[in-house]
Specification:
mainly alpha; globular; 2 strands; single chain; 400 residues; two-stranded antiparallel sheet
């Protein structure tokens, strides 16, 4: 996501040498936003649990890849600015800024945008007789009040409030994380193994206790139960990394983290293959794939957490190494990335409704691919255009 001109809400940019903008992290944020759009575009056409009659097995691999790490990475990147902003502005100004930049889009999103988006599903299920006004009133009074991807904003706002409390009560906790980050410049493998171990410790017990389907909800506010501690961990890892200068810690584009990118790439590939192999085994060899044995749940949770850590580090290292200077194909989207994230679910669900059940070519898999491409391209174009138009409104760039 973004605020003003980055892909995640950031009042103060991630630290960089001599105060310059950190292009690698701007581009990493924008890249993750694109992955979110791809993720949502292909979900109806997955093989297992698809909602359209056409499907493509390759989309299941994409959904598994994205679902495992993108939100954790977004929380980590969102945490990078927090400590410098708190130190510069103080708790009061920081929280007022967060309420404007996160609270206002959250309110608009859950009250206006998400009901418009989910009305497309209501029409498909209930038929054209269902009026929008009645549907909206039922949504906000009876429920369910779906938040779609906007749930990220309310969780991030809650984490920001918690970070402000830590800053006021026990700032040494986060500063200790920052010192670990600085000390890891020459030995990033230690930081990687620490993140991997912490990911397993925070995720596996929650996944086994709550399962992967349960969500904590309060009206439109929601978070996946099994991932709550995992997301909190990655957010505060980002806060800790951002607590030191970028040219001293893990944000250094010339450091060992970036130079050792092949190691993180191999780790991501190995853990992803293991995760996919477990899923394949469940569907092909277990007698009841819907109720796998506990050993499978535990193994799946371990590989999930391991790939989450590996791929998050891998993305950071790759952008630091290969996309930290010059011009990037991602740069034109940078200023509008938050607006794209905020708006995209509206055109996306209506496009998927328009294409529901339509056969574009005789081959089922090719139809699924074409549908997903149409949805992705038109969703990106329309949400990008809408964001650009909104940003022309006086004062809108303070939020979008």
């Amino acid at each position: 996501m973004s605020v003003i001109s980055s892909a995640l809400p950031t009042e103060a940019k991630a630290p960089s040498r001599a105060g310059r903008r950190n292009a690698a992290f701007d581009r990493a944020r924008t890249f993750i936003i694109l992955l979110v759009l791809i993720h949502h575009s292909v979900i109806p056409y997955t093989y297992y649990g698809h909602t359209d009659r056409q499907s493509f097995l390759g989309f299941d691999a994409i959904v598994t890849f994205n679902d495992t790490f993108i939100m954790a990475a977004m929380f980590l990147l969102s945490g990078l600015f927090v400590w410098p902003s708190l130190a510069h502005k103080g708790v009061g100004d920081f929280l007022r800024g967060r309420l404007l930049r996160l609270g206002l889009p959250l309110a608009v999103g859950v009250v206006i945008l998400m009901p418009i988006a989910y009305y497309a599903i209501e029409l498909r299920n209930a038929g054209p007789g269902a009026g929008f006004a009645a549907y909206w009133w039922k949504t906000v009074t009876v429920g369910p009040w779906e938040s779609g991807p906007i749930w990220f904003l309310d969780v991030l706002l809650a984490f920001d409030l918690l970070a402000a409390a830590v800053y006021r009560i026990a700032p040494g906790l986060v500063e200790a994380l920052g010192r670990v980050s600085a000390a890891s410049l020459e030995r990033p493998a230690y930081a990687f193994w620490a993140l991997l171990a912490a990911s397993i410790v925070t995720y596996v017990p929650s996944a086994l206790y709550y399962g992967i389907e349960r969500w904590f909800t309060l009206g439109p506010l929601a978070i996946q139960a099994s991932r709550t501690l995992l997301y909190l961990l990655y957010f505060f890892v980002g806060v800790g990394i951002g607590a030191v200068r970028g040219d001293r810690g893990l944000l250094s584009s010339a450091g060992e983290l970036a130079r050792q990118w092949p190691a993180w790439l191999v780790a991501a590939i190995v853990t992803y293959v293991g995760l996919v192999a477990l899923i394949f085994y469940k569907h092909e060899f277990l007698p009841d794939p819907n109720h796998p044995p506990q050993w499978w749940d535990a193994a799946h949770a371990i590989f999930f957490a391991s790939f989450c850590a590996s791929q998050t580090v891998n993305v950071i290292a790759l952008f630091l190494k290969f996309d930290s200077s010059g011009w990037s194909i991602l740069d034109p989207l940078r200023e509008s990335s938050f607006g794209i994230y905020l708006i995209h679910y509206v055109p996306l669900l209506w496009l998927q409704r328009a294409l529901f059940g339509v056969t574009l070519v005789p081959v089922q898999q090719e139809t699924a691919i074409l549908k997903a491409l149409i949805v992705l391209v038109l969703t990106l174009a329309s949400s990008w255009a809408a964001t650009a138009a909104l940003r022309r409104i006086p004062g809108a760039t303070r939020v979008l």
